[in-house]
Amino acid sequence: MIFVGIEVIGRVPSVLHTPLMSGANAIHGVVIIGAIIVMGKAETDNYFALGLGFLAVILGTLNVVGGFVVTDRMLEMFKGKKK
Fold it and tell me: Is the pTM of this model over 0.70?
């Protein structure tokens, strides 16, 4: 899957990387909300659901933050060079 991901993303024109990352950030924002809902509805003694929800929140947050960092770097490429 890593190879397929690299091939797919590698063939996307650089102009489309920023909207692609914005869409991925929105999707992972939904994942974070879903994980919070799962954790809120889980019983206090259901450690599996709580742990899985916590892991989903952490990984989703890392993905959203990473997406914003990549988007910021992509936007920096389109700015003119300072003299």
Answer: no
